[in-house]
């Protein structure tokens, strides 16, 4: 069939131009007579591509020189555990801000490796609003502060970087990296599973301030140590070469779009259009999230009558609108609006929503 | 350019039919209107594909029902560490057979998590022969015995599965899995990085006897625990969906070839042809490895005069023969003959070698 309008929360839509290029180059990449997947990661061609991908990312986000960029594996979930292994020594504690499903999971995976202090939580508010910065019980001696700027399931997003003084700020940006301009210098460590705004699943991008690579952490195998990955240009072992390549193509595509400022404007416009369609529906559709905390990337919404959910999903799929079913923890619908989702896709969605409301009024 | 004859040690050649199918399906997989990379791993289409891939692998290797099959990340290197984390409790020791670069690395990554007993080593023989089974100093109380059936750098391969009595045998089969029929029931745990005989890098396949999933191991985050991955059908977190898909296509291709018995015969014939060309060259080419330990998958060889190495590499590349340079630890040349390397490719290589010897005699 023809390409659908894909609102998947992840693994999510990729830019069509990226897929088309990967398709063209599948059997003969870069004049090598072989696929990029069939190349040694230690070969000249692959190393050049890998370095260009990093350079393009550095340019897109204006990453300062005192930050290393790593291309890792394991998903963000593995790094929920690996970050405390690397950044916390014996007896250390770390502050965690719990704003939804993923930050809660970060806590549970970290707990084996660091004394976790939940400095603030939105749980009592069912994660429909964010715990106000003034309420955070931060420990100035913490090894780091961890938070999740965007929660994909609950659809809440921090719209400002919290000030945590001198303690390194660690952010799981899996679902909002590269979605708007970012002041990297405010962070100690940024990490992101690739499968939303970067590329295919199985790749994790990390941006880490180099001084944090000096921390001893706990005893661990070399393969878990970020400093080793940094010292080996992320080729301590065989990286996910296909993921790295796709990420590089996505970075080029972002540049061709005009860079992150342009993408940020587009993302703002996309989210506004959808929230307006929800808020302007006279209660037919509802956003459960407090307006100030609404995510630009993941928009959960409910129908006024949950009995209509099945019809909504069936008809939207028939109309070529993919993956609108909400997460089971929240129910209802969810539209994810990552970078590769066009403004046109959101227009098609909102038009469908209006039409559905009229027909099923 | 046209497709080359690819002898890369890994990431290695993939079957051309697999690449062509992935190319065709790149923008519209399985009638979904989206790439396989753009699908939720929790969606019906992906789950069906994933289950079929596992079923096909089980059929290919006749994997008994009391073994779980896992699709993981991190490369074999991460599992050098993760295996002792899972299989060894506090105070346990494990036996390691060191037969080359990779088994030595398995020891160093494991050492944080288990008391390593090097039960045998080929180091004194420069890893050019295998330590005889009679010489192994095994501990009947060991948590497991770890060995590397095939060493890609030194080109040595065990041609029989060692008997280690009741202690679970753990094998890093990254470079020889699926290359010949295998009696899985002889093993406690088999694992393999995908990038040689399975698919692209960034995926690790594991076959583990289910009773070993009951071991407590050491305290660790859930994401490191194989039992959790098994209980969640390898979807504890987002898997490498592209790698899984390519692995599934490769399993189908193996079936189309006639299964592993046919592949095993083909691999034997390929290796014989190349070793005959080396041994029959009157000393122009030499294999440094003891004949009984020669690998079918990775064939290192030297030229009688190392001053000819540069010319050999330049001319072979010009003739469309890719990645013949030996590993820097060994020098000379190396041809890797994984499943996707055809008998025809080996014929082209041996013809080139004979021609080169005549011209540079």
Order of helices and strands of chain A: EHHEHEHEEEEEEEHHHEEHEEH
CATH class group of the largest domain in chain A: Alpha Beta
Helix content of chain A: 25-40%
Can you summarize the main beta sheet of chain A? 7 strands, mixed
Rounded radius of gyration of chain A (Å): 21 Å
Low-confidence stretches of chain A: none
Mean pLDDT across every amino acid position of chain A: 97
Shape of chain A: globular
Percentage beta strand of chain A: 15-25%
- Give the strand order, joined by hyphens, for the main sheet of chain A: 2-10-9-8-5-3-4
Biggest chain contact = A-B, 70 and 70 residues
Secondary structure: number of strands of chain A: 14
The computed structural class of chain A is alpha/beta
Count of individual domains of chain A: 2
Overview of this protein structure:
The first copy, chain A, is an alpha/beta fold. Chain A has two domains: 17-257, Type I PLP-dependent aspartate aminotransferase-like (Major domain) (Aspartate Aminotransferase, domain 2); 258-359, Aspartate Aminotransferase, domain 1 (Alpha-Beta Complex), CATH 3.90.1150.10. Helices cover 33% and strands 16% of the residues of chain A. The first copy, chain A, contains nine helices and 14 strands. The first copy, chain A, has helices at residues 16-24, 44-61, 75-87, 101-110, 226-231, 241-257, 260-279, 309-318, 343-359, and strands at residues 5-6, 67-72, 93-98, 115-121, 145-147, 150-151, 156-157, 169-172, 189-193, 204-209, 285-286, 298-303, 321-322, 333-336. In chain A, strands 2-10-9-8-5-3-4 form a seven-stranded mixed beta sheet. In chain A, strands 11-12-14 form a three-stranded antiparallel beta sheet, with helices on one face. A two-stranded parallel ribbon of chain A has the order 1-13. The mean pLDDT of chain A is 97. The interface between A and B is large, with 70 and 70 residues.
